[in-house]
Design brief:
By secondary structure, the chain is α/β, with parallel strands linked by helices. The chain is built from nine helices and ten strands. The protein has one domain: Rossmann fold, CATH 3.40.50. Strand 9 and strand 10 form a beta hairpin. It starts with a strand and ends in a 6-residue tail after the last helix. The protein binds adenosine-5'-triphosphate and magnesium ion. The site of adenosine-5'-triphosphate has 11 residues, from helix 1.
Amino acid sequence: MSPALELRSVSKSFGRTPVLRDLSLAVAAGERLALIGPNGAGKTTLFELASGRLAPDAGQILLQGRRIEGWAPHRVQRAGLGRSHQVSQLFLQLSVAEHLRCALLRGRHGWRWPAMGDELAQWLDRLALAHRAEVLAGALSYAEQRALEIGLAAAGGAPVLLLDEPTAGMSAAETARCVALVRTLSVGRTLVLIEHDMGVVFELADRIAVLVDGAVIALDTPARVRADPRVQQAYLGAALV
Ligand SMILES: Nc1ncnc2c1ncn2[C@@H]1O[C@H](COP(=O)(O)OP(=O)(O)OP(=O)(O)O)[C@@H](O)[C@H]1O
Ligand SMILES: [Mg+2]
């Protein structure tokens, strides 16, 4: 079976600054892969390329075996990739239900608005936002906004989910709820998770890819990555639980 997502010798520079250097990475179908690395390593840029927001300078990107590099984001989305962003992309003047309706419609090829009620209710429950359905996104708490964003990435039914720091800025209790949500939503899908919280990484990841200066310096099980001297060196003593 072809990998769910694959980057082959991908390079990307901003001006003269190389951000991803000849990077190759294959994420197996059904795998939960955490992408970790210091600030500025190129993690979000990798998501920008995979989701069609940026095109690589060189190399190939394959989603479930299909070449997608250079495709527009909506086309990549339709081909099966759902993504949440490091910085909120919510429309603050739209309600929770309105956001979810849009995401559910995106997963359908045609307009079947009336038949959507049950599915919408299920998503509101899953995200613990049933009591907030008509609240504007701008009036949600920070953790509720993050949960909604994760839900939007998944609600279209995308088999491949990319989540960019879903727990950033959350309390310990909020993080635990978020981990439970991500675990539920990742069942039957492929997940790539950018995350700085090593507790979250070790709870969720089947494998970890370590990105430093635009190159993958380690790709292995959590236990092996934790023991890898190159990884410890890259983090210079930062807590690798
Ligand atoms: N659109 C852009 N134009 C110019 N430089 C950019 C752009 N986007 C990112 N960069 C630069 O590319 C490098 C990698 O950024 P990126 O956002 O991919 O890092 P990251 O690994 O996600 O970091 P963080 O953990 O802080 O989110 C950084 O030096 C950043 O300043
Ligand atoms: Mg980032």
